[in-house]
Amino acid sequence: MAVVENARRMIVHVLGNMTAGGNERLCLELVRRGPPGVGRALITIDPVPSGPLKGLFESIPDLQIFSEPYHRNARLAFVIGLARRLRQLRPRGIISYPFGLHLLIALAARAVPNCRFISHVGNPPPPHGPRRAVFEKIVYASRIMRTPLWSCSETVHAQFERLGLGMPKDSRAMPNGVNIPALSEAAERGRAARPRGGPVITMTARLDAIKDHDTLLRAFALVRRQLPSARLWLAGEGSRQEALERLADELGLGESISFLGVRRSVGELLGQVDLFVFSTTAAEGFGIALAEAMAVGLPVVASDVPACREVLNGGECGILTPPRDVRAMAAAILKILRDPTVARTYGAKAEARASAEYDIRTCARHYYDYLLEPRAD
């Protein structure tokens, strides 16, 4: 693929893979919102670039896509290859999404004079243990290399600051954003195709250990005792799918639960349901799926962990339940499903907050304003 001639107005996005996680979806939206006249390139470091978002990235007009595979045993070769690619592209700015590996990416970026660099941070540091020490070393190295860390929420940024090492210059909290107009339009299409039957609950998230689908499944089993017609749709894929399917069988959920895999249009799915539940852990950084549900006016029940507390404004815009508290989550679900007035009230508050705080256009403007500003050093 030919390189854009006007390369000094180029922004490069360096992404791990094209799965449907929060980092990848943020990258997709930021790429789509590059300012007029600014070139855009995507470099994936996955040795086999693939995933549910691959087709969406490939459909973006004028987006140049490259692969610079990262192998743990060939770090130097990765840095050299990436530096060569960046010298060819000569970008004005770079956004790196794989936290930790951003240090190697920043090292390669030194090959481009006067290039601004941001490392996106999607999750908080662990509260203790060996991995926390690793995070401390990464933050220290980022400060030495003057690599700004842009956290996906105030919650994540505050937890990094509590490491006590001092954050790199120009680091900040920059809450993730969602494409509100597109979600709203897709949700309207979904409502027109809404299936008949009892109330539908959904959660859209990777099926991995950072989330807490187990609590949701157990809570849903209690809900069905009082609302036998209720259904649960889980959208997403991940390493815990088989374990969750076994748990669903043990709980006797039968056909009341559906594992939908990755959905191309999250908005259409959200338009077909009555309630969004986000059962997660304290390792959650933001919960972009939570903001998507709020943007289309769905009432929300979520685990009372710092990230969800921030997004739901302390519980004003949705019901927060203690983490892993099955009975509390079941009670909150029933409260919303049984009372349309409560559902409408929470849905309206959620939609208003999403519009005010989590519009991707605001998020993108801050990223591009910083990256396109000439460096002073």
Overall geometric form: globular
In total, how many domains does the architecture comprise? 2
**CATH architectural type of the largest domain:** 3-Layer(aba) Sandwich
Biggest sheet: strand arrangement: 3-2-1-4-5-6-7
Class of the largest domain in CATH? Alpha Beta
**Helix/strand structural class:** alpha/beta
Give me the number of helical elements. 15
Task: Tell me the helix content.
Answer: 40-55%
The name of the CATH topology of the largest domain is: Rossmann fold
- Number-wise, the strands total 13
What is the N-to-C order of secondary-structure elements (H for helix, E for strand)? Answer: EHEHEHEHEHEHEHEHEHEHEHEHEHHH
Largest sheet: 7 strands, parallel
Round the Cα radius of gyration to an integer and report it.
21 Å
Structural overview:
- This protein is of the alpha/beta class.
- It has 15 helices and 13 strands.
- The strands form two sheets. The protein has a seven-stranded parallel sheet, sandwiched between helices. A six-stranded parallel sheet has the order 10-9-8-11-12-13, sandwiched between helices.
- Helix 3 packs across helix 4 (102-109), helix 8 packs across helix 13 and helix 11 (288-295) packs across helix 14.
- It starts with 9 loop residues before the first strand and ends in a 5-residue tail after the last helix.
